[in-house]
Write a structure and sequence with these properties.
The chain is mostly helical. It is built from 5 helices and 2 strands. The chain has a two-stranded antiparallel ribbon with strand order 1-2. It starts with a helix and ends with a helix.
Length: 138
């Protein structure tokens, strides 16, 4: 009788396997951001390719040009660099970004031009309709 009681759960109590599944799901949910980051880094390292989401673009509002210049100093080739750059904003279809990037590499004076794209997730409906019409079949 004791053997039968040890194999069957008591009425009203969940089976141990259900508790284990819930525990695994909870831990997976809580550690997802860290696991995603690690898996992207591992994928990049193994394949030698860029994995979406590895880098971020940061927009910073500054009260004046001098503060923006102070923040914009960066370390390049062993020295602190302060360069004047002009941001060119080009809107195109996501499917055409690779063609645009190839063209920019051909005509840009930098050895490695800073070219990346951010997909438009949301926008003003009238503007997006205008953009679609303006780009047409490009």
């Amino acid at each position: 009788m004791d053997r039968l009681g040890s194999r069957c759960p008591l009425p009203g109590y969940p089976r141990p396997s259900v508790l284990i599944c819930l525990l695994i799901l909870t831990v997976s949910f809580l550690t997802y951001p860290m696991l995603r980051t690690l898996s992207l880094q591992l994928h990049s390292a193994i394949t030698g390719s860029y994995a979406s989401g590895t880098y971020s673009v940061v927009f910073v509002n500054c009260p004046n040009e001098q503060i923006a210049r102070d923040i914009a100093r960066f370390f390049w080739n062993g020295e602190i660099e302060e360069a004047t750059e002009i941001l060119l904003l080009i809107k195109t279809k996501t499917s055409k970004v690779h063609v645009l990037s190839s063209y920019i590499r051909l005509v840009h004076p930098f050895e490695v031009p800073e070219v990346f794209s951010l997909p438009m997730d949301q926008g003003e409906v009238h503007y997006l309709k205008w953009l679609e019409e303006a780009l047409g079949e490009y």
